[in-house]
Amino acid sequence: MARFDLDGKEIKPLSICLIGGGGFIGSHLCEKLMEETSHKVIVIDVSDEKIKHLFNQSCSWFNRIEFHKINIKNDSRLESLIKISDLTINLAAICTPADYNTRPLDTIFSNFVDAIPVVKYCTESKKRLIHFSTCEVYGKTIGSFLPKNHPLRQDPDFYLLKEDASPCVFGPIEKQRWSYACAKQLIERLIYGESAENGLKFTIVRPFNWIGPRMDFIPGVDGPSEGIPRVLACFSNNLLRGEPLKLVDGGQSQRTFLYIKDAIEAVVLMIENPSRANGQIFNVGNPNNEVTMKQLADMMIKVYAKVSGVSEADLSTVDISSKDFYGEGYDDSDKRIPDMTIINKQLGWNPKTSLEDLLEATLSYQHTTYSEAIKNAISKPSL
Ligand SMILES: NC(=O)c1ccc[n+]([C@@H]2O[C@H](COP(=O)([O-])OP(=O)(O)OC[C@H]3O[C@@H](n4cnc5c(N)ncnc54)[C@H](O)[C@@H]3O)[C@@H](O)[C@H]2O)c1
């Protein structure tokens, strides 16, 4: 069926090179593009575990998706795959806070050095690039430097994060947590520079805590038992195992959560409306879904009890210091609320799903997918 852009023009099928397309965001984007559009997707990743279900010969889109098992650090095929595509989307990254201060070099290489050839090939071949950055580029809010009860902390000018106005405020170098944010910021600056000097057509996406099914892994089931995934999978793991949910430094950090399915609608609008998305940096988040990590844990306990039948009284939280949880060099952003003016104006996009609804959908998935495997893992006698 014909698709039309926001200006009423018919959209021609595109060939999209999706780097890092085998991960959480990539898997949802592939599903959407296969189910609802005629675009072709060339996925590049080191793993296809999360998108395997799309490669079934019986699927109507079978000829529109292909997978290339490539590590973009060192593979000459990358250049030719970018050159034969109309658009490149780069999702590949190390993007788990537990890695930022324990593997700072891998984090910096992955988020900056490894992305440079992607930018270069897009510039050279005059191909459009949608690059995934992060809301972490804002770092800490200016308000966080004011005394705790200072009235200006309540003033949006001191906490609302705006693409074209807010500064990027990171901690000192010894706080290696900022290695990720700093590498992402530098690649944004490189892309911006390529556009200014060499005409690269780009869009930069700053996701604000997109969550949903297939995010990360459950330690000891489909990821290393000593691994620390992002907060949704950490809390899910605790819930599935009936362990207390660990609140780092009391769980006082504030975040806004966006349902992955809402987020993917924004990305498809960017793909299909180049004249409105090129040259833009977009915050993509849900300012209405703000909670502290403590509130998120309490909500997840309630929702998990409802979807799993486990008694709420058997689920609890426990405090842990960031040093014990993440190790030396950890630091945190206090609060992250996106200003939505630019994406709303350019693409008319708004998030829809409440935190309660997105947690219900996600925790139902976690329970159905993992509870048996966890029971088996727990009941196995340790050697
Ligand atoms: N999920 C979020 O809320 C969020 C928030 C901020 C930023 N982002 C950014 O969005 C992008 C995608 O995030 P995600 O949540 O899907 O993460 P993810 O870890 O699930 O996906 C990243 C994918 O990139 C692949 N990859 C990494 N290095 C690679 C390499 N050298 N060669 C080939 N493939 C490689 C991984 O195998 C993985 O499948 C990242 O750039 C991340 O920084 C995401």
Automatic annotation (TrEMBL):
A GO molecular-function annotation: carboxy-lyase activity
Residue ranges occupied by any NAD-dependent epimerase/dehydratase domain in the UniProt entry: 16-285
Gene3D superfamilies: NAD(P)-binding Rossmann-like Domain
Record has NAD as a keyword: yes
Keywords, in A-Z order: NAD
PANTHER family on file: BIFUNCTIONAL POLYMYXIN RESISTANCE PROTEIN ARNA (PTHR43245), UDP-GLUCURONATE DECARBOXYLASE-RELATED (PTHR43245:SF21)
Name of protein: NAD-dependent epimerase/dehydratase
